[in-house]
Amino acid sequence: MRIEGVTALVTGANRGLGRAFTRVLLERGATVYAGARNPETVTEPGVIPVRLDITDPDQVAAAAARCGEVALLINNAAYATQSPLIATPTLDAARLEMETNYFGTLSMCRAFAPVLARNGGGAVVNMGSIVSFFNNGAMGSFCSTKAALWSMTNGLRVELRPQRTLVVSAHSGFIDTDLAAGFDGPKHDPHAVAAAILDAVETGREEVLYDEATRAMKAALPDDLELIYPEVERQWLART
Predict the structure, then answer these.
(1) Whole-angstrom distance, CA of residue 240 vs CA of residue 237
(2) Residue 165 belongs to a domain
(3) Which side of the chain, N or C, has fewer Cβ within a 10 Å radius?
């Protein structure tokens, strides 16, 4: 798919990686709908703000009706807390993360699949994470949503291939956004991550593992109990 001339919708577009996606899309000649719960917070010049809470079925349906020329859907919106699976007092955070990161994204894909089909197939990008491939106890509920999203994205690819929709699963370590603000260590430039993912869309690649850490984590999955979880457990015990 050529980005130049395409019409795209980005969720969670008012800040962080979402804003970076809108900027790179504009730079490459796309028309961009920028979805956000509060459209007045969308300040990037040249985009078209859309009121869009992906956990609200009515707003999702309204976006699909309004944005009927979309051929590229970028599911970037996410909610994250540092909530362990057992040590958190209630399930509230876990429910909100799953409602947003999994069910909200699935709702967007279901609403826009017919739109993409009418526009020649198009493409969907689902923004996963390095934690799609392992569970860090300190943020166990968020990691679980990204693993679910990864599985869901693989299933969508099977269902949508007959209508010629490219489905891209994108994963990265920490990106320099508000979502990762509470974590130490190096973080990737959002603009560079967005550009690499859109490069994949243009070349028809179905998976983006943005950095070496993410590639190593996925490669370790066959032996995760030996290669991944001893260090995860060490870190968990160090903080408790």
Answers:
(1) 5
(2) yes
(3) C
Determine the residue type at 194. A
Specify the pTM: 0.95
Is residue 156 exposed (0-12), middle (13-18) or buried (19+ Cβ within 10 Å)?
buried
| 90/202 Cα distance (integer angstroms) | 43
* pLDDT tens digits for range 165-211: 999 999 999 998 776 556 667 889 999 999 999 999 999 999 999 99
Q: Which positions ≥6 away from 191 have C-beta within 8 Å? A: 20, 23, 24
The tens digit of pLDDT for each residue in 15-38 reads 999 999 999 999 999 999 999 999
Q: Is residue 92 part of a domain?
A: yes
Asked if residue 150 is part of any domain, the answer here is yes
Q: Domain for residue 228, yes or no?
A: no
Task: Name the phi and psi angles at 125, rounded to 5.
Answer: -115, 125
Domain span at 49: 7-215
Q: Which residues pair with 115 in a beta bridge?
A: none
30: amino acid identity, one letter: A
Pick from 220, 86, 76: which is nearest to 141 by CA?
86
Total domain count, the chain: 1
